[in-house]
Amino acid sequence: MLTIALVILLAFIIDLMLEQVVQQESRNRAELTAYRQLSTIAAKMEGHLSLSLSMLEGFSAYIAANPELSYEEFARYAKEMFKREPLIVNFAAARNLIVNYVYPLEGNEKAVGLDYSTVADQNPSVLKTVRTAESLVIGPVQLVQGGEAFIARSPIFYEQNQQRQLWGIISAPIDADALFRQSDVSLNMGDILAIRSFDALGEREAVFLVKSTFLTNRSACRCLSQSVVVAGNWQFYPITIPISY
Fold it and tell me: Going by CATH, does the domain composed of 47-179 fall within 3.30.450.350?
């Protein structure tokens, strides 16, 4: 009887171990599939954002070389950029951190004269851009005219009397919905995907493409894909793996 009981117990243990192996293999396959999908999305988003930011930095260099440019010169350059990069919503250049160049002007008239030093929700990122002399991408944020956008900012410095002087900054909202579409991210992917962004200094920014209920789960998680997106770092998580803070 004892021998039979031991055989039954051993069979049960083996069956349990086999079930655990099968479950682990299933999890591994699911994780590999998610990793491949997230890696593809990350690469596409990185490519699109890199193109947008490189154009913004090129615009910054143009202004630095022409610090007294007229609005007509600014608009002419901006118009050419719009032909090349449809993700950018508009350009706003702020000399001495006061917006005095906007393209297109129509629909954005209220932005002219905006003093970043008086805008509480934008002042920190603007000052960070100036202090670090590095381009930054933040967001996504809600746009006044509707929709969401990532805000790219680039500092502008010019030479005067052989000294480097701050001209100001140039900003460009990048259409978030268009970015997601061109990166093959459907807008209902909050069911399966979460992205957490960090700026270039490693400071945590937004968690996006995720349902609000997901953010209440504080248990440990593991990032399946990570991308050094322009001016920052984004981590990609499958929704089935909770995100920790």
Answer: yes
